[in-house]
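hi! just following up on the protien thing from before. the input was this:
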Amino acid sequence: MISINTNSAASAAAYNLGNINTSLQKSLQRLSSGSRINSSFDDAGGLAVSMKLSAAIRRTEATQANVGNSLAFLETQDGVMKAADKLVSRMAELSQLATDITKSTNDLALYQTEINNLKGQLGLMLSESFNGVSLFTGASSGTPATATTISVVTSQDGLQTIGISQANLASVGFHVGTASGSGIDISSSTGAKAAISTVNTAIQNLAQLRAYNGAEQSRLTFAADTLSINKTNLESANSRITDVDVAEESAKLARFNILQQAGTAMLAQANQSTQSILRLLM
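and the predicted 3d structure came back as:
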């Protein structure tokens, strides 16, 4: 059948060419953006999963930052306790020197003056803080109990937490004192001998507090490592959904370019086919 009003071949060619042009534009968009999903139409289900994975990645990054800040808190705490260790060790040295029978009362008084200053510095350490959060707390007792803890969230879903301690540095000050007139007194030989045992107990308490601190730092470090691994896996899963395979998409682009050129040529041929009808009328 030869018809003038209807050119079904041209309509079919135009339809196919339109589909090819749409596919070509999508391929260009994917390659230029690097993303396989540029709108919800591209992959509705994949987009929904990707949104949840992206949110989980952001939460993981925020949790990593929080854990890092908690580690900095513990490192700062340990730095103060390291200074306290030097301070108490000096007290132990002065106490031992004060047991020397050749030292006069004036000599012992000078040793006690230095001890009093060290006590005052230890008292100042008790009020140290990190970004407004106290590094040390707890009752002033002879044992380094760590009842007071801060809960650190270590998972992006908020379900996992680790408790870290505000160290009870007061348990050290309880023995050696934190102000003039409190704690050890080495102004006499008898007092100096008693101070040696007292300072040793304070050193033991401080060593225990630093051991607690080190264990908590170690645990938080492992938690930070786990977060890094989880983030990498989440990013990998999200990449498989959203990122374009450049090699595959480039092959598609080349195919669509060829089909577009062929479709354009065939549309031109279909439009020219009706011209043969004029020969029948002439």
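The helical segments are 8-33, 44-97, 105-125, 170-176, 189-242, 246-273, 276-281.
The mean pLDDT is 89.
cheers
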